[in-house]
Design brief:
The structure is a homodimer. Chain A has about 260 residues and is α/β, with parallel strands linked by helices. The first copy, chain A, is built from twelve helices and seven strands. The structure holds adenosine-5'-triphosphate (ATP) (2 copies) and magnesium ion (2 copies).
Chain lengths: ~260, ~260
């Protein structure tokens, strides 16, 4: 039973891309078949796992516009994760899709052809609540919210929850919130713990465990075109994502 | 002679908002009159300096659509910086402006009425290269690129440079790149220094000094609704931004 999971947060730089790459790699290590979809025109996920977006023939943009079958656009990565990559063309998607009827469903429709071949499909969203992110939320069974646990990321949660509720009401009744994943977590300060506790209470959200601590090892991984699970195999960051993956695979979202 | 400076980088979470708030506060401390403009529908800058976007009557969105005069929308902050604030309505601006002729010039036109009352106007961009960021680049005399000096932020520079060149060619011949500001700088690792040296060489960009080091003091400031120059007056982060402001005020961009 394939689980499609959107990794979303409109705040910039909260480790959405790092979470998709690392969780994807961990799930593959644990024996699952994983597809990741890069929904950011900046194509950071595509680049992080060793592909040059400018060298790609097809991308998720072609798939969303119905020009190419998804199966033809999916490529492999050295980490063993399949990827539906992005290129800068995707920046045009917002405009192209803006006036199309049923524009929220194009990703869901495209994934129907290929999802069955995977145990997990992870969707990497850009820092916005535009049509591509709405597509991710409409296509997904569950959503995980990576959060930096600082004041400015706290502020975005309300708006993201409103958007998720809109999608649940209008496009995807079955969408469940799997929970918040604390990222770049600084357990020394009180601020991070306070923000996390407040979000949990205020929005009734689950918190995935363990939190991902700040670590300089993460910055090295994209430079090598591999996930941190390969560039820093036994680091705390890699181990934390492995544990999150185990918990994720065991428990589906309840609400 | 008013200097209008866009703070732009489509990569998320590289301290654009923190830079506008901190530089703005430093320039005010140093005796300049400063206006900051929040061009992000997430309104983090507005919130960081003590305003609740949901309580505001007018915002930059009304100004861009020509409904309200800029002078009526500008409000003050405890840091002494004037702000043209944002609200979530701004998310609609991309769509509203998409089909309008001369849509790249609406901010420039709006600022013409008020810029003369200030020495500096700083424009806080969202993590995208959409119509609002194009407006900022079209309205600006100079652009500063805050950069996290990690692989993924390095990757975005090419695309940003292409966009700046397009704007220079088509909408704003006089736009100059003031330079890159290294933010959240980890001087202990070789990666940050290597990325910075590479960007400097590859794109011929100036690097503003000093770099802004990583510091936990920055996360506290938005929680208090004040800039870090007030919440951590003599911290290294506050001092670094003061120095950048002094250098900025002395030297205009050369190219
Ligand atoms: N646990 C961590 N510790 C330290 N650095 C991290 C950690 N997780 C991610 N990073 C680094 O932080 C930066 C931002 O991460 P990332 O690009 O994954 O965020 P994002 O939410 O996808 O950003 P965007 O909003 O631009 O898509 C990257 O350079 C990444 O390598
Ligand atoms: N020098 C620093 N050291 C540590 N934390 C910092 C520093 N500068 C900014 N931060 C924190 O990093 C986070 C991201 O900063 P900020 O919101 O200013 O980035 P941004 O580029 O404006 O993000 P976005 O792309 O979402 O607009 C904030 O929580 C901020 O407080
Ligand atoms: Mg990303
Ligand atoms: Mg910002």
């Amino acid at each position: 039973m394939t689980r499609i999971i959107a990794i979303a947060n409109q705040k910039g730089g909260v480790a959405k891309t790092t979470t998709v790459a690392s969780l994807g790699a961990a799930l593959v290590e644990q024996g699952h078949r994983v597809l990741i979809v890069d929904l950011d025109p900046q194509a950071c996920l595509t680049f992080s796992l060793g592909h040059d977006p400018e060298e790609l023939e097809f991308s998720v943009h072609d798939v969303l516009l119905g020009r190419v079958a998804p199966g033809l656009s999916i490529i492999t990565t050295e980490d063993g994760i399949d990827i539906l990559p992005s290129t800068i063309d995707l920046a045009g998607a917002e405009a192209h899709l803006l006036t199309r009827t049923g524009r929220e469903y194009v990703l869901r429709t495209a994934l129907e052809d290929v999802a069955a071949g995977y145990d997990f499909v992870l969707l990497d969203c850009s820092p916005s609540l535009g049509v591509l992110t709405i597509n991710a939320l409409t296509a997904a069974d569950e959503v995980i919210i990576p959060m930096q646990c600082e004041t400015l990321s706290h502020r975005g949660v309300r708006q993201l929850m409103d958007t998720i509720e809109d999608v649940q009401r209008l496009c995807n009744r079955d969408l469940k919130i799997r929970g918040v994943l604390p990222t770049m977590f600084d357990s020394r300060t009180n601020l991070a713990k306070a923000v996390l506790a407040d979000v949990k209470e205020r929005y009734g959200l689950e918190v995935l465990e363990p939190p991902i601590a700040k670590s300089v090892r993460f910055a090295e991984a994209p430079a090598a075109g591999r996930s941190v699970l390969k560039t820093a195999k036994s680091s705390r960051g890699a181990e934390a994502y492995r544990e999150v993956a185990i918990n994720l695979a065991e428990i589906e979202a309840k609400n």
